[in-house]
Amino acid sequence: MASWVLFPRLQLAEVEDQPWCPSWLREHSHHALARMWRTSNSRNGSPASQACDLLLQVLGGPENARQFTFIDSCAGAGGPTPLLESAMNAKLAAHDYNPVDFVLTDLWPDVKAWEKITRRSEHITYIDEPIDATKPRRLAKLGTKECRIFNLCFHHFDDGAAKKVLASAVQSTDAFMIFEMTHRTLPSLLNTTIVILSVFITTIYDFYWSPIHLLLTYLIPVVPIFYAIDGYVSCTRGRTAKETWKLLYNQPGVDLSEWELKSGEQTALLPFGKLYWYSGVKKGAKK
Q1: Per the confidence metrics, is the pTM higher than 0.85?
Q2: Residue range 51-85, pLDDT digits in tens
Q3: Which of 17, 103, 130, 176 has the most crowded CB, counting CB atoms within 10 A?
């Protein structure tokens, strides 16, 4: 059953979007996101594992998924791509299919972080030049289909930019998938509250060696305040499926007659963590 949306969408500003946001604060956020993607507290597996299953589902199973190159369009510091790549290729190997490639891209490439990731997996590469997701451009390896993935980032785009991002995906790819964990729903707000409070536990494990992280978590609560602002603001930016697809309809030059659009939500982390997803697949891509 779909969660009820509690209030209208707002395009408020997040601290991490600002150029003055300090790197040590971004680092804390990236650690939290990585932990969230790999945490498994139910029989359904981690959010990354569930995201992989959803990709396989919307693409029509392993036989079709093996034909794709997967493009992380707003990769940041790498996000869940290493986990998705590992899970996807493990599932393909179980069906005796060759591994597929994942490509990290971003308007602001974090090459230093990506180099570490690519050293650990031969099936993850990156593009070191800025890639603007609002501009149509095919990025998949020659001879493969392209699936563009947006991991917990689509809510950052205002409506004008989001229209261009979706139009670009339709015009230059064979499939796209949007994953979000924040929304204007009660489960999402409750889960965000748990994440905010969790920093009092996780900081000591992740940053026991860093005086600035310890000081600004336990003595001066800058980190919890940062998580509260960005967490709740992210919730206000979430879109319903109807709001998302409305951005695509009636755009000049965008032909949706050959596209299948789907959406859904499922519990990814107990007790309140919901994974919201929105997919588009070109009908011919399932052959």
Answers
A1: yes
A2: 999 999 999 999 999 999 999 999 998 999 999 99
A3: 176
